[in-house]
Amino acid sequence: MSIPEIFAENVFNEKAMKQALSPEVYRSLKKAVNENEPLDFAVAQEVADAMKDWAISKGATHYTHWFQPMTGITAEKHDSFISPVKGGGIIMEFSGKALIKGEPDASSFPNGGIRATFEARGYTAWDPSSYAFIKDNTLCIPTAFCSYSGEALDKKTPLIRSLETLNKKAVKVLHLLGKTDVNKVLVTVGAEQEYFLIDRETALKRDDIVFTGRTLFGANAPKGQELGDHYFGAIKPRVKSFMESLNRELWKLGILAKTEHNEVAPAQHELAPIFTLVNTATDHNQLTMEIMKKIAERHGLMCLLAEKPFKGVNGSGKHNNWSLTTDTGVNLLDPGETPAENLQFLLFLCAVLKAADEYQDILRASVASAGNDHRLGAHEAPPAIISVFLGDDLSNALNAFINNDTYRTGKSVMRLGAKILPPLPKDTTDRNRTSPLAFTGNKFEFRMVGSNDSIADCNVVLNTAVAESLDLFAKELENSKNIAEAVHNIVAKTLKENGRIIFNGNNYSDEWTKEAESRGLLNLRTTPEAVCHYTDSKNVELFEKHKVLSIVELNAIEKVMLDNYSRIVKIEALTMIDMARKNIYPAINNYSSKVLSTAMLKASNGIDNKTDTTLASKLSALSDGVFEKAEELSALVAKSNTITDSKELAYFIKDEVLPCMESLRSFADNAQMLTDEKDWPYPSYAKLLFSVK
Ligand code: ADP
Ligand code: MG
User: Fold this and answer.
1) Taking the mean position of all CA atoms in its chain, how far away is CA 469?
2) What is this structure's pTM?
3) Which runs of consecutive H residues, i.e. helices, occur in 218-359?
4) Cα 581 to averaged position of ligand 2 atoms, centre (Å)
5) Of 63-72, 340-349, 417-426, 596-605, which range is least confident?
6) Residues with a CB atom less than 6 Å from ligand 1
């Protein structure tokens, strides 16, 4: 089967809809989607029928409302199409009502206190702006998930709301710039996904990987990533064959999987899709993660999406490439060829700068998780400090522009000013891989997202904060007679007020941490510190003004994120205690008694046994440490169970539980380095990282 033939074969997309629906119904559906209008009931019924017939023709037997609850994973409850008829038979049925609205028993999904348990019902509503698809013989209908009082209980609803406000404000700015042909502004996103691929059988021997998706113990491998021979190196045959199967599955779902390569760390890889509209990109990224895990299993592999699966080895993230496009096909972050296009570019560029500076706290909070805390700021990923990379060329051009100064590009020197705007540097050659938010020619690349995270949250913040900048810019443009002059003033004002957010240097350096502090930029190192900013009054004001999130919803998000953090670390702590008590402590003692019997044997034969006795006493001290720390950790977990306030609990976890885990680990890892590998109960890092050929 050729790739163009299988591409999107399992998606109820434009092509499938045109084939399955009558022209009138197709038109009504498109109109409802484009204008954000509710779907007429008769139309919904016909769409449901057509969708069902299409799905059944592809072998589907069930349907599900596929949604993305606040925890970030996806959820689905399957119902079959069967419906009994008189005489004991069945027919395959799917009603318009079932298409538009579902009522999963939602009590098991986190709601951050929004729903009282006596009113546990939530409902899912079809989001016709993303296509239905078939997965595992089930028709999946992408839906938003809300409480009965209308609050968002998922990640999709705020995303859609943020797109509405951004669209409105951006169109307004464009109209003020004279671009009256534009009716809609859309967000495009390409999410590059990093992941680890290890041998499944080996991985299953480790309780930490099985229960938490990452290693909680483990001494470094003798060969780490310092040789750098993995990145862009030849892809190993087993990995290659995994990637081929993965691509095939993704293509069938219409996911534009494009680039694949090894990453910096051993056993680490990346998959980049071609960008799409953010709503689709969010669904696609969720599906990509799910399918990666499934295909890995089929190939005897395990796909790890944890942000930091191995200590001392680079972690995994996700790069959220973000840009704005008009319905006329113009990328608003593309420096244009003409002065007028440049005005537009400068405005949108400044909108992002202002947004990133003024809402750095929630942008950071949007990527906060227990896993990502191990990665951000660990000299392998951007720090927890938000800054924007523009590159020297563009930074110089901006400064020259506001100072009416001369500006050098290549050989030519130009005078920049409100009246004459020469072409801006296009596709700047300088690249910076350390920046959290880097301008990369015609888009911004947000690199702080964790590999396991949904991309919805950061895009909600980016969209809303940029909408706010554009709203303020629109007011200035409206009050001005000379548009070029107004843009000039806006750029100057933004650079003056928000210029501190621009940093073109090395974000991994310690000097930057110090400089950022002197610039007044926030360094929110951990999840509890970051997440609590969601409900700062300036942020509540932002989200409420743009009707993206209410204070009730913001409180819920904060609570769910904090609870999630505490829950994850607690599971990790319990897993460590179990591993330490049942396997690691006994293993050290076991080996140490072997060493001691050797020592005794040597002594009885008059052979010097100093090495053995020294080793045995070192091991004994380390096993004592392991035992004591496991006891201590166990007491801390017990204490944490008595804390009911989410914020207090998260801080307790960060300040007490995590440091104790760290210290337990260090006793065990030191013992591992002195223990015969045959006596160690778990496969080593070397085995985990270099076992796939
Ligand atoms: P790098 O590895 O240098 O970051 P890649 O080429 O691997 O670059 O990834 C770039 C990502 O950016 C791809 O997913 C690509 O589709 C996406 N991208 C390109 N143009 C846009 C755009 N206008 N809007 C959103 N994403 C984009
Ligand atoms: Mg990238």
Assistant:
1) 24
2) 0.94
3) 237-252, 278-298, 339-358
4) 42
5) 417-426
6) 188-190, 192, 259, 272-275, 319, 321, 323, 331, 442-443, 445
